[in-house]
Every structure is written in C-alpha cells, then in structure tokens.
Design a protein that fits this description.
Order of helices and strands: HHHHHHHEHEHHHH
Bound molecules: protoporphyrin IX containing FE
Number of strands: 2
Strand order of the largest sheet: 1-2
Number of helices: 12
Structural class: mainly alpha
Low-confidence stretches: 5-20
C-alpha cells in the first residue's frame, strides 16, 4: 500500500498538470507583446469595419464547437479537403480571417513559432467584446493548433431553428450548461444575420402560410420588408439584417427584445419557453452588469473546450494552412 504522503504527492502532481494546461499570461516570457499586438490589429480593423467584432466572437464560438478551440476553423479548404469554413453554418458568413492573419504575420516576426492561431482567435474574441463596450476578461492561453478541419463536422454547431431542448443538449455535449447557453446567446446583441438564416419564420412557418406566431407581428413586418420573397418563393441569399438597433454595442437589449417576441432566430425566442430559462432572460434584461459578468465567465469556459496542449497539435506558421 502507498504511504499517505506519496498519495498526496501524486494527487498534487495530477492537479497541477490539469491546472497547467491553459494559463493566463502564458506568453509573458515567450512573447510579451502578443496581447497588445492582437489588440492593435482588432482595434484597427474595428475602426475600418465594425462588423469585424461580431465576426470574431462568432468565429471563436464556431471554432470551439468543432474539435475544440484548436483554430481548425481558420484552415482553408484544399482540393482534397473541404474544411470547416465551408460547412453549412459557416459558408460565406464568417468574418475576420484577415485580422487573425495580420496579427499572426506580426507575431511571427516578433516571436517566431510561439503564438498559436487558436490563442490569437481567443484573444481577438475577448478584444472584440471589449471594444464594443462589453467587459474584458483574462484569457487563459496555451492552446495548440489542430491539423484537421472537416466541413461535415460543423454539424456540432447548433442551428437557428433549434428549440430549447436541442440547444441545451448541443451545449451539454461541449460541457456547457443551459445557463452558459443563455448567457452566451446574448452575443446576438451585436452583428448581422443573413435573411436565409431566419426566413422560415417570415412567410410560411411550418407550412402554415403564416409567420411564426412567436415572432412579434411588427418585427415580422419589418423583417419581411428587409427580406422580401422573390417569385420563386425564396429570399435573396446575400441580404442581411442587423441583429438589433445597436449592432456594434455589447449590451443586454438582446434579452429585452426576446421578452417582447423580438428574438431573430427560433433559437433566440425559445429561451422564454421554460420557467427557468425565462427567469434567466428576465434577470439579464434587468441587469446589464450581471449579464456581462456571466457572459465573460461562460466565454472562458467555452474557450477551454477540448483544447490541445503540451506537445499535441502544432503552432501553425500560417493560420490558414497546416504546417507541412
Ligand atoms: C445558441 C445557439 C446559437 C445559434 C443557433 C446561433 C446561430 C446564429 C446564426 C444563424 C447567425 C447568423 C449568421 C448569418 O446569417 O450570417 C449568428 C450570428 C452570430 N452569432 Fe450566433 N448562434 C448561437 C450562439 C452563439 C454564441 C454562443 C455566440 C458567441 C458567444 C454567437 C455569436 C454570434 C455573433 C456575434 C453573430 C453575428 C456574426 C456577424 O455579424 O458576422 N452565437 N448566430
């Protein structure tokens, strides 16, 4: 039998290994300017185009939900491999690749082969929330980059027509709770959506020839004006609407909208369909501070999904291409 003291030593080693996986200030010694370089790139891009911020927040979420936060969403499709960026939830709707690329180019000059693309994306998502007037947070870093990216694996990303149960299950598969899901959904307070992402709710919902009854009639009217049907009965694939009245400000109006049947997707409106989820929506609608704090906490949790650390994966030289 092992002496108690040895068992304690093993437990401590085991614990420190778990804790050592990701670390705040990870690049302090190896690339001390990493965070400020990434911030400068996000800031510059944001002042050119405010849509960069929502683009980067969403890209981090979609990265983490497919094979974990390993930068696999950044890998380009090649003749032999259709990558995540071209999977159905992503194709033609992702924004912000160029910001990651320019940050990476500067980081490779500053400290070659040190900062992973997965970490750049995690920092850039945090900076995007901060620059739109949300709360910042310390990003635990030390992720390594994956070498696999497959379009078909984007089925792990929840769909806009999901109901509460489906959303909860989809997040549970990634070890995130329903509370996390509700706090994170508030990211839909910034950005835009293509009409095709919600047009099923506007004209002929569930083959009823009527709009979705859970969508406010006034909001449905406005959305129909922005997303008119063409003679074929479809909507133009290029048309977009903004998520709400202040699509570049990270504040809790998302929850107030949902309470007034103004959720853009079924997946937004469905948050009012259980007493517990409704209570959380109400709480966030009442307190921006509370929501921003919970959002930051859930983002940190999300950013740790299935990360590659230690000697797993690689540090990509070019975020869009796996190392040869
Ligand atoms: C709960 C399940 C979710 C579903 C079903 C969902 C679905 C969608 C859809 C369909 C769009 C519109 C894409 C387009 O048409 O261009 C969108 C946009 C967006 N989503 Fe989500 N999303 C979910 C959760 C999240 C989470 C957890 C985050 C981040 C933490 C997030 C951040 C965003 C942002 C910022 C945009 C705007 C992107 C832009 O402006 O380019 N979403 N989402």
């Amino acid at each position: 039998m092992l002496p108690k003291v040895l068992i304690l030593v093993f437990l401590c080693i085991g614990w420190s290994q778990v804790e050592a996986q990701l670390r705040v200030d990870y690049y302090n010694k190896t690339c001390p300017n990493a965070e400020s370089i990434i911030w400068e790139e996000v800031e510059e891009a944001f002042f050119r185009d405010k849509g960069i911020a929502p683009g980067l927040v969403r890209m981090h979420f979609h990265d983490c939900f497919v094979r974990g936060c390993d930068g696999s969403i950044l890998i380009k499709t090649t003749p032999g491999n259709k990558a995540e960026e071209d999977g159905p939830p992503n194709a033609g709707t992702l924004r912000g690749f160029e910001v990651i690329d320019s940050a990476k180019a500067r980081l490779e000059q500053e400290c070659r082969g040190v900062v992973s693309c997965a970490d750049i994306l995690a920092y850039a998502a945090r900076d995007s929330v901060f620059i739109t007037r949300g709360l910042g947070w310390d990003v635990p870093a030390g992720r390594r980059d994956g070498r696999i990216s497959r379009a078909e694996e984007t089925v792990d990303i929840p769909a806009p027509f999901f109901n509460l149960n489906q959303l909860t299950q989809s997040f549970a598969k990634k070890n995130l709770s329903q509370d996390d899901m509700i706090a994170l959904s508030g990211a839909h307070t910034i950005g835009r959506a293509h009409c095709t992402s919600f047009s099923n709710r506007l004209y002929n919902f569930d083959s009823t020839n009527r709009p979705d009854p859970t969508l406010s009639p006034l909001y449905a009217f406005i959305l129909r004006l922005q997303c008119p049907r063409n003679p074929q009965g479809t909507v133009d694939a290029d048309r977009v609407v903004q998520m709400n009245l202040s699509p570049a400000t990270f504040e809790n109006s998302y929850y107030t909208n949902v309470l007034h049947n103004g959720g853009l997707f079924t997946s937004d409106q469905t948050l009012t369909t259980s007493p517990e989820s409704l209570a959380e929506v109400r709480e966030y609608a009442m307190s921006n501070r509370r929501w921003l704090r919970d959002f930051a906490e859930s983002m940190i949790k999300m950013s740790k999904i299935q990360v590659l650390t230690g000697s797993a994966g690689e540090i990509r030289v070019n975020c869009r291409v796996i190392n040869s």
